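Please fill in the sequence for the structure shown.

STRUCTURE ENCODING:
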């Protein structure tokens, strides 16, 4: 059974590229790809993905706030933050909110699947 992945990414081109990247990986399937995380709580509750890729800088609600909401009801899902921010504050905030990992967008093509 493939690993179910949700993608929350504001940039349309990057979101589509991530979907294409996972299409090349045999053990994964994209179960949802969204341009914002305002409905992430309901979406994760309903579809129970194995992995969530979460952009930090999202419209409406940022990814760190979405992680906090998800962690209130689901401690099991693996959450990897995707961001351009390369500073200790964002890393600390994301991990404190409950993210399992943190990946810079500039490293996505090389490190995402193994992450």
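FILLED IN BY: designer on duty
SEQUENCE:
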């Amino acid at each position: 059974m493939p690993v179910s992945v949700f993608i929350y990414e504001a940039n349309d081109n990057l979101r589509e590229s991530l979907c294409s990247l996972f299409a090349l990986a045999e053990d994964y399937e994209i179960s949802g790809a969204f341009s914002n995380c305002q409905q992430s709580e309901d979406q994760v509750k309903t579809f129970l993905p194995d992995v969530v890729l979460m952009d930090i800088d999202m419209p409406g609600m940022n990814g760190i706030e979405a992680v906090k909401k998800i962690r209130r009801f689901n401690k099991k899902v693996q959450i990897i933050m995707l961001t351009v921010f390369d500073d200790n504050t964002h890393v600390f905030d994301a991990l404190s909110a409950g993210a399992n990992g943190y990946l810079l967008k500039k490293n996505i093509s090389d490190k995402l699947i193994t992450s």
